[in-house]
Amino acid sequence: MVSSKFKQDKRLETKGAVLSMVCWVRTLLFISVLVPAFVECRIRHYHFNVVVKNATKLCSTKPIVTVNGKFPGPRLYAREGDNVLVRLTNHVQYNVTVHWHGVRQLRTGWSDGPAYITQCPIQPGQNFLYNFTLTGQRGTLLWHAHISWLRTTVHGAIVILPKKGVPYPFPKPYKEKVIVLGEWWKADTEAVVKQATQTGLPPNISDAHTINGHPGPVPNCSSDDAYTLHVETGKTYLLRVINAAVNDELFFKIANHNLTVMEVDACYTKPFETDTLFLGPGQTTTALLKADQGIGKYLIAISPFMDTTVAVNNLTGIGYLRYNHTLAFTPTTFVAIPAVNATPVTSVFSDSLRSLNSKQYPANVPLTIDHSLFFTIGVGINPCATCFNGSRAVAAINNVSFVMPTTAILQAHYYGINGVFTDDFPAKPAIPFNYTGTPPSGVQTMNGTKVYRLAYNSTVQLVIQGNTIIAPESHPTHLHGSNFFVVGRGVGNFDPEKDPLQFNLVDPVERNTVSVPTAGWTAIRFRADNPGVWFFHCHLEVHTTWGLKMAFLVENGKGPNESIEPPPSDLPKC
Predict the structure, then answer these.
(1) Candidates 2.60.410.10, 2.60.40.1840, 2.60.40.420, 3.40.50.720; correct CATH number of 371-554?
(2) Cα separations in angstroms, 501 against 344, 349, 435, 494, 496
(3) Fewer CB within 10 Å, N or C, the chain?
(4) How many angstroms separate the CA atoms of 180 and 74, rounded?
(5) Is the pLDDT higher at 189 or at 13?
(6) Residue 152 in 3-state DSSP?
């Protein structure tokens, strides 16, 4: 009877999920008290060993930090409602944490992962058990390191299947494929960021883009290390596309094939057809692909988006879609990629996204607002006597450049430790200015470890306004601990009188990461119903490094079900 239980979730087992011994014991205990043997075991147990492994890309070999020796790392499969346990053991010289990007972590902020925000890092030779439940979520997410630039190679997919017996709200695909997009540096990225920090200059850009770890053909390297997606004529495939890149927003195209978007950031959408996906770092898009073209080989291309005067790796990552029975040496069908500054393509894609807003999956947009916040974000220059040219690149929200503490903020909040942070993060800029016009002179950011305090279950409207103090730029911004609804976006300065009249409060897309357009704004709404400390930051690692980050502190509500759980006994120490 026990063995038949394991067969019930064979789909998960064959994709790498390991049922823990705790789960086995609980099953036996259930049986011993005459609970039927078909009771579903809902604990998924993974072991993440952080190790160094040599990897060869672009005709060059270097050691990289990995989980279980894989790049990208192992895929984490589970179902909605499952309890996930991940034992992470650090075998490398660096401190490590892992963030489960997009997992809400209801009352389990200790397992969220950002270093010095919710936990102290896992030091070399130490381990920690991440323990969280996938409540009310299903779809595609990702996990990645959340300290320094280790997420360059320490990342992987999270696939949350619906509860058993619950169908997708779209036609069942023939097969599912996970496609992880990334960046690759020939150099050691920890050395890259260290050099940039010392000189005050922007870090070197990456050397290639990768598809499931493969860059494809690149100049000055004869190796065609390319990913191939094998398909069968007439079948429909579900592609789970993840942008795990560090600094680049990316376009994704397959020659002669359209894609039907069904979900973003583990939130179902109204389906729409497109030939181009647009994903910022940390974003996911799940789409149906119909293999409806002639037998042959078709180019898959990922290329960067940058519509301003900022250096970007403009090399296209190449892969192939190959139909079964395609003959050897069949010519490849090529695809036209968007221009690097194809702003209209990004706008059409973003504006097409709408929540499914069905009876089963409603869009619960907050209609009344307790906190109306206005955050202006961007980069700047501060004096630095020891830097290369006497100045340092910085980034800030409301002119505050975030300083990482040496004790985790969540621990300081929980235990009442003074001197770690202050709760006076400004709700709006201290001095308003023409954010997308000529920048004011003599602007210098202030430093601080500041949070914005929210009462439990309060509602928030946040307008994120890009500025042009140095150069306007698209900013993919990520909120930990909550999804949000993207109720509006626009170019130029936000108009508090006119722009809210155009907000979509019926079926706005629900996400955890959203791009703020270059020299423009994005408005989001969310409910602060998850007690804890939740990071909010630009998901371009270069900007996070420079200080474009802050945190929301959500207070406990009434009783244990509205309060953060006590910290685990093995929580790492600083």
Answers:
(1) 2.60.40.420
(2) 23, 22, 21, 12, 9
(3) N
(4) 11
(5) 189
(6) helix
pLDDT above 80: residue 35: no
Distances (CA, A) of 434 to 377, 493, 496: 13, 7, 14
The structure tokens listed for 272 are 């729409």
For residue 225, give Cα distances in angstroms to 56, 197, 236, 245, 452: 10, 33, 26, 18, 47
**What is the pLDDT, as a whole number, of residue 469?**
87
For residue 86, the SS3 value is: strand
What pLDDT score was predicted for residue 443?
Answer: 74
343 contacts: CB under 8 Å, gap ≥ 6? 307, 517, 518
| Residue 464 to residue 515: CA distance in whole angstroms | 10
Count of residues for the chain? 574
Q: Which residues pair with 84 in a beta bridge?
A: 44, 132
Q: What are phi and psi of 519, to 5 degrees?
A: 55, 40
Classified by CATH at the fold level, domain 39-169 comes out as Immunoglobulin-like (2.60.40)
Q: For 147-180, what is each residue's pLDDT tens digit?
A: 999 999 999 999 999 999 999 999 999 999 999 9
